[in-house]
Amino acid sequence: MSYPFQLRSAADYEQAYQSSVQNPELFWSQIAEHFHWHKKWDAVLTWNFEEPKIEWFKGGQLNITENCLDRHLPAKANDTALIFEPNDPKSATQKLSYQALFDRVNQLAQVLKNNGVKKGDRVAIYMGMIPELAIATLACARIGAIHSVIFGGFSAQSIADRLQDAQVSFVITCDGAYRGTKEIPLKSVIDDALVQCPFVEKVLVYMHTHTPISMLKDRDLWWEDEVAKVVALGNPICKAEVMDAEDPLFILYTSGSTGKPKGVVHTVGGYMVYTTYSFVNVFQYQEGDVHFCTADIGWITGHSYIVYGPLCAGATILLFEGIPTYPDAGRFWDIVDKHQVAILYTAPTAIRSLMGFGLAPLEGKSLSSLKVLGSVGEPINEEAWHWYHEHIGKGRCPIVDTWWQTETGGILISNMAGITPAKPAYATLPLPGVQPILLDENGTVLEGNDISGNLCMRFPWPGMLRTTYGDHVRCRTNYFATYPNLYFTGDGCYRDTQGNYRITGRVDDVLNVSGHRIGTAEIENAINSHTGVVESAVVGYPHDIKGQGIYAFVIIESVHGDADLSKLDIAQTVTRLIGAIAKPDKIQFVQGLPKTRSGKIMRRILRKIAEGAVDALGDTSTLLDPSIVEQIVKGAEL
Ligand code: PRX
């Protein structure tokens, strides 16, 4: 398979970028021509950022799974679509050809249909990183059901919130998942969540870990039994539902600075075009390359660069169930050698944690199959960049530092492997079609280079979010109201003298912990629901491995017995209500919080204390009670 829209030189990039800005509609329609449509679009783009209303390829009819699967047959029927590397290196690797993946997606799509799932119904998927997770997402897309994949680390309460918000009628899960030495009892977590969700009609369960589970009569179904019924009928092809380009493909929940996570909605046509285009260009994918993205399909990176982008491009994807340090810190490198991985796409937090093991885990590893390295999810510090470049890429593999978000659907700012220059710790240049702009807090546009500001986008790209599920006003308030007529990313950014972009981190109350986004308000709500807690304030602080750690300042009525035990209890409450990823690293009991006279918590001061920068607290005279700061500094957990 060749990619007519693959850029092959810096000059190609330059030219594509210019065309994409001068005539975006022509630019994107020429790319969209290379996909399979039942009917071409009526209009390439209709948009305004006030409502917002964004429509790409409206009136175009397609099914994304025909682009991921059907159109690769028969030419690629026997080519490997998916390699599965299980948690336990002693368990057998699985390979699915494009034909096999097509067959399994069709079977499951038929199972969903047989159980009453229709176009537009919401289906939640809560599974470990096994091939069936990818199959489940594609089966939903095949029949036009909207999938909502929930990361396997979220708690029953977080699941229930998401199921309620989207009024999910069908859940797909497995008995359990493996993560290193741990077995995660997914089905039992789902059972707990469903106590609050009587509207869920059916739960389909794939048996993976053989963890004992309870199956509820008339609600729970075994995946294998349901598939067997379809096979008994001669395995018919499940006709792909013809979708409008602007029909929703999936909902993915993500944290913001306020309230509960919001359901970011992506639609079929634009998302397909954008993820495929960015995949082929950023990673410079070549036919036959094995692409290993270590993200979980529960996050946007997995949706866009394990499932949809690569499969639309006919790529070979590698799905890994385990963790980088099990059975030892050489696991990624063993996988690279075993499957001759060409592209490794991972997060800085994983690189930093593996760096901590030194070079011993790399002994005896060749890594010679690697061609391109990728980084995503958080700023990559220079030390980690150089280690990755030197010890993993052996100085010969370009590193692409890809900046994007759940809301953007695909990579917006990144160098293109070997085509445009890399610069350590810089995401570098916008992709064609992407028009970044920096503004100060007052909304003044910051022209020129060597300047820092808040990062916005001034023109739509096909992969961007269309709404937040069930609450369009929230979408507007969150992303389109801060700066009129612009999409606001929530990130701070520096543009260097050559126009390269360096993302400096969030400018709102959102933390990025090990590449995972968590709102401070969400964690505070969880802490505040713990008995005896009066109030709390959560901030991030620099953490060597996670990027940011979670520091909670908590006012508690009284500590009964051991303070450390009380802290442990609070941390457990957060884990129970959200999931282990939101568990505070440090909890400090305080008498009060630094507040302005209008009652607003001065987080700037708490951040400085958490960082240990107590000499740089700045002006505290506007505080209601400046003496509180001194008390907090004395008791700080450094
Ligand atoms: O702050 C940015 C950071 O991650 C945020 C988006 O998080 P999420 O929606 O969970 O998506 C993560 C995977 C795409 C951004 O607002 N971020 C993501 N990539 C980078 C980054 N920060 C710096 N450099 C990056 N390459």
Question: Which class best fits the helix and strand makeup?
Answer: alpha/beta
Q: Distance between termini?
A: 55 Å
The largest sheet is: 8 strands, mixed
Proportion of residues in helical segments = 25-40%
The kinds of small molecule bound in this structure are: adenosine-5'-monophosphate-propyl ester
Note the total helix count.
Answer: 18
Rg result: 24 Å
CATH architecture tag of the domain at 66-241? 3-Layer(aba) Sandwich
The outline comes out as globular
Into which percentage range does the β-strand content fall? 15-25%
Query: Any idea of the CATH topology of the domain at 66-241?
Result: Rossmann fold
Using the coordinates above, name the CATH class of the domain at 66-241. Alpha Beta
For the largest sheet, list the strands in their spatial order. Answer: 12-11-8-6-7-14-15-23
- Extract low-pLDDT stretches: none
The total beta strand count reads 30
Overall pLDDT level: 96
